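Protein modeling request. Please complete all fields; requests missing the sequence field cannot be processed.
Requester role: graduate student
Desired output: 3D structure, token encoding
Chains: 1
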Amino acid sequence: MLYYCTLLQEISMSSIHGHEVLNMMIDSGESFSTASLIAAIEQRFGADARFHTCSQQDLTAAQLVDFLASRGKFIPSDNGFNTHSSKICQH
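Delivered output (91 residues):
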């Protein structure tokens, strides 16, 4: 168990939680396409950044966007999609 906790701590130090991307989207007030969201993520966090969620790890920006979309985290708008704080799990 100690090894698992240490591993999770190491992952969190070198990886960005998907919640940070959702908060970035909310703070921007913009609508995104898949391509523009990936570009915004890479601009903010770096092209080589890796991401994790509550159930996934070592995701690229594109993989994270696909995962978040599959989990229903995006809200459609006239010009693409955004998200809302209610889409962010609270644990």
